[in-house]
Design a protein that fits this description.
The chain is α+β, with helices and mostly antiparallel strands. 25% of the residues lie in helices and 29% in strands. Helix 3 runs parallel beside helix 4 and helix 5 packs parallel to helix 6.
Length: 297
């Protein structure tokens, strides 16, 4: 009997202390605040690079060429190999575009910056904004340009704890002609992508004058987000968007170029042997006609 009593006493659970009222809510709030502070520390400010030796006479004209390209963290088609920025860099040189929006740009931690090296070689200015911190470095959007970058801005359009997404805008031009290029990479989830498009349409840079929206829209099928973009922006002259994904045999039009207060004369995917190997996306290129500014007097 004594042995049984000892076992029963050992199995008896110690009663829990009553939880203070509001303690869970306060703990969750503290956790959210810590995560937010950590994410803000991890995301560095905007990076701007001005290329040395670029053409001082480069001026934005009425006819300009723009492009968008998801470089897939420089890892090629399958994304499993070591980053090789030279492959995508060669494709960017093939484009010969005046303004290029890049997505999934990786700037490695503790190593030479391939984006800066690329733009130095091609004599292009760039602005870069981090979307999230990847295990190998900073991952985000960039805009490359032959023209001086007059101003730039960033908008967070994540609308999700899982997918961090952003918008990068850069403005160039002079008193005669100007253009704002807006680079983005939208969500894989339909509902989130729709909310991101609404945020985009209210972006002040998009509504301030002549602009082009460039990026990986993840528009693998007709959805509310893409229908909204098609309705709000001037359509290009083709009935169908050029296929850009997957690069070896493209069937989906994920990468698109929309214009506001400008006319897209031609749009096409850059389908070359080097482009089919450098990323899982092909670049998409457009020739755009910009209006001249009308001055009073």
């Amino acid at each position: 009997m004594a042995i049984r009593r000892k076992k029963a006493a050992a199995n008896k659970k110690t009663p829990r202390k009553p939880r203070k009222k509001g303690g869970l809510a306060k703990a969750l709030a503290r956790g959210r605040a810590k995560r937010l502070a950590k994410s803000q520390r991890e995301l560095p400010p905007l990076s701007i690079f001005t290329a040395e030796g670029m053409d001082p006479g480069a001026r934005l004209g009425q006819e300009t060429t723009v492009a968008t390209y998801n470089v897939h963290r420089w890892t090629g088609v399958n994304g499993r190999g070591a980053p090789d920025p030279a492959r995508a860099g060669f494709v960017i040189s093939e484009l010969d575009a005046d303004v290029i929006a890049l997505q999934e740009v990786l700037r490695p931690t503790g190593a030479d910056d391939p984006l800066e090296a690329l733009c130095s070689a091609l004599k292009l200015n760039f602005v870069f904004a981090t979307t999230r911190v990847h295990k190998r470095g900073e991952l985000g959007n960039a805009i490359l340009s032959r023209f001086p970058i007059e101003s730039c801005s960033v908008l967070d359009i994540s609308h999700s704890r899982i997918e961090k997404r952003g918008v990068l805008a850069a403005h160039f031009g002079d008193a005669d002609c100007s253009l704002t290029a807006i680079a983005t990479h939208l969500s894989l989830v339909d509902r989130t992508r729709t909310r991101q498009v609404q945020s985009l349409l209210h972006h002040p840079e998009l509504n301030a004058g002549t602009s082009v929206l460039l990026g990986d829209m993840n528009a693998w099928r007709k959805c509310k987000a893409t229908r909204t973009l098609d309705d709000e922006f001037s359509r290009h002259d083709n009935h169908n968007w050029p296929a850009s994904f997957p690069a070896p045999r493209p069937v989906l039009a994920l990468d698109r170029i929309y214009s506001m207060n400008a006319e897209v004369k031609e749009v096409y995917s850059h389908n070359t042997p080097s482009a089919r190997r450098a990323s899982d996306h092909l670049p998409v290129v457009a020739r755009v006609h910009l209006p001249l500014r009308i001055t009073a007097g």
